[in-house]
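Hi W., the adenosine-5'-diphosphate complex you wanted:
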Amino acid sequence: MRKIFFLTVILSGSSVNSTVNKEWFESFPINTKVPSIEIIGVLPKGGNVITFVKDQFNTIYLVKQYKEFDWDKKYLLMVMERLVSHMAQEMGYPYNKVRIIPANINFPGKPQKHLPATLHKVVPGVPVKQLSIGSRFASVNLKQHRPKSKISGLREENIVHLWKHPDLPIIAGFDTFVSDRDRGKSNLIFCEIKNRFYAIDLERSFNSSCSLAFFTLKNLRNMRRPFSKKELRGLQVYKKIIEQLIKTFPPERTIRLFDKFCKEVAPGKLFKNDLIQVRIREYKKVILKSYEDSKQLVKLLLAI
Ligand SMILES: Nc1ncnc2c1ncn2[C@@H]1O[C@H](COP(=O)(O)OP(=O)(O)O)[C@@H](O)[C@H]1O
Ligand SMILES: [Mg+2]
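Structure:
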């Protein structure tokens, strides 16, 4: 992470508010007094502008805003980032904490004021992609979707890693439940000091008509070899996580949260846009489908 900070250093700030609460981020952007925020670096890559900032208590966050913003395509990705982060935090899983900086709100590190952005608490560690080849976790692969070969769902190449660290079956189980197809090695961070994994970049959740649980079911049914004891241990935790999620997030509840966060990203704005309305309905269908497929998956996992 340190590498990033010397790239571009710009200083900025908002007025210091002495009554500001150290936990301001938790309730942001609602009823929040924002502390003094300083820009400490910009990550110059990809389709996003990623700006690292710190508050007056020295906690580090990043602001993520799309360079090319198109409401039809990007709006619901931001809603997903917020929704899925919320669900994971409620469960106590090691996922990125995300808040929305709504459209028309100024925030240091948010270049386009009239558009929304997301504010993320920075997690410690380095992406698995950057771990040195000899490192014990360099080969960990939790990505449940390979677009080029059209392979989806949890499968053998993921299952062989689940037992290697207690965080891995938790992340794999949650990703399956929310159908997150983007847990590549850049979006999985390992912190050697804390010995924890963290999942970041949650926007590709619930956004394909076939759920990851559906594909996982298929893959497990087609497995050609028995699981080892270690693999079975990993799969037991994976199953437990999906069971917990089924109990906590029935689709009606997830959909209520989804509606709430749609409004948070663009209060009162887009509900006349037909294309977005169609997309919202598609996401809701996937939430329902993913839930039903997850229930089937748990049944199958109980039998292995
Ligand atoms: N919460 C975070 N903590 C630490 N680094 C982060 C965090 N979120 C993003 N990053 C860094 O920014 C990069 C891009 O962010 P990401 O959310 O993955 O967006 P993209 O859609 O561009 O892949 C990540 O690969 C990582 O290096
Ligand atoms: Mg990413």
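The first strand starts at residue 37 and ends at 43.

W.
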